[in-house]
Amino acid sequence: MNRLTFDFAPWRLSGQVYGVLLNHGPALAALGEAVHAAPYKAPPRAPVLYVKPRNTQVASGSRVQVPAGVPALEVGAALGLVLGRSACAVRPEEALDHVAGLVVVADLSVPHASFYRPSVRFKARDGFCPLGPQVQMRGRIDPDAIDVSVAVDGEVVHRTSTGERLRPAAQLLADVSSFMTLAPGDVLLLGVSAGAPQVGPGHRVTVAMAGLGELNFDLVAEEAA
Q: DSSP assignment of 182-223, as one string?
């Protein structure tokens, strides 16, 4: 696997990458009435977080293993907010001042039907968090209006954007920081859009975000890796 090279301040990765579930309006709507039934019983009232730990994080150009017995992985294109300053109980209007830059992330998962208490074995396997080759300074890029595409072997199979978020970037960061401190180098994902494609081994995946470049990785069968 290629080496991650985010070794320069203020983007030195701390090892903490946080994902958020059901932050895309259409993704939550797709649950329909099921969101009011067990085990959910109601739509989420606060951000539903999970961790993509150090073992999941790989660089662009890496080979990611698809576990034996799993026909395909869900490829969730996610915008990463890279913290440059500690964020604790920040207000939405000041939240983005704590973001040093933005990075393209592929949030990979073994497909599963339930969003309740995300299983580590579905979300946190080795290589399940490819990160883009560089962090772009936020500058004039609006994190809530970035066009996103996912291509398989050069053919685009999914188009979306970072819009339609139940919690836009500033609000999400403010809400998360209300109950936990985010440190410099932490990455907070804005969330995966509805309709994320499923891709099996033997294919090259490219996740592209306007103004941020693209991330590439190859999916290989576990036994062939």
A: BPTT-EEE--PPTT--EE-SSEEEEEEETTTEEEEEEEEEGG
pTM reported for the whole predicted model: 0.89
| Residues 76/194, Cβ–Cβ less than 8 Å | no
Q: Walk along the chain (225 residues) and give the pLDDT tens digit of each residue.
A: 455 555 545 455 666 899 998 898 777 666 666 565 555 555 667 788 999 999 999 999 999 999 999 999 999 999 999 998 999 999 999 999 999 889 999 999 998 765 556 667 789 999 999 999 888 887 789 999 999 999 999 999 999 999 999 999 999 999 999 999 999 889 999 999 999 999 999 999 999 999 999 999 999 999 754
Domains of the chain with CATH codes: 17-224 (3.90.850.10)
Dig out the tokens for 195 from the structure.
Answer: 């309709």
Cα separation of 115 and 196, whole Å?
14
74, 170, 181, 84 alpha-carbon torsion, rounded to 10°: 90
Residue-by-residue DSSP string for 21-88: ES-BHHHHHTTGGGGGSTTT-S--SS-EEEE--GGGEEETT-EEEEPTT---EEEEEEEEEEESS-BS
